[in-house]
Amino acid sequence: MEPSRFACRHCGDVVIDRRLLDALLALQGKVGRPLVILSGYRCPPHNRDIGGELRSYHTKGQAADIRAPGVPIMALFQAALEIPAFRGGGIGLYLNRKFLHLDIRPQRFRWIVPPRNALPNKTHSH
Ligand SMILES: [Zn+2]
């Protein structure tokens, strides 16, 4: 995992909650492959620009969108469920773009975005 990848893509600021970092490192250890961070911290203007939710956990340094190359998305999802901070927090399964949103919100929350060719289902929210 490349910590610099956690910085806001727009301004380079970095805010990361230690508990998120620890949970990501634990997940990385579990899958045995380096995690790739697609989106980590987002400053509020950047979050707004990309259409993120107003109170997104990304703006608190408490969320990351990740992949682990070589690890199937469902295997990554199962591994995340074994990490207490994620099991008890937010997990969004993006089957359309094959990544996982993980956050350490204080209550369990799950959502799934179906593959592109599936029938429309739910919205995404993070
Ligand atoms: Zn920014």
From TrEMBL:
Keywords: Cell wall biogenesis/degradation, Hydrolase, Metal-binding, Metalloprotease, Protease, Signal, Zinc
Superkingdom of origin: Bacteria
Molecular function per GO: metal ion binding; metallopeptidase activity
UniProt xrefs under InterPro entries: MepK, Peptidase_M15A_C, Zn_M74/Hedgehog-like
Pathway of action: Cell wall biogenesis; cell wall polysaccharide biosynthesis
Peptidase M15A C-terminal domain sequence ranges: 18-103
Signal listed as a keyword: yes
GO biological process: cell wall organization; proteolysis
Protein transport as UniProt keyword: no
A Pfam family that the UniProt record links to this protein: Peptidase_M15_3
SUPFAM superfamilies: Hedgehog/DD-peptidase
Cofactor: Zn(2+)
Annotated family: Belongs to the peptidase M15 family.
Name of the protein described by the UniProt record: Murein endopeptidase K
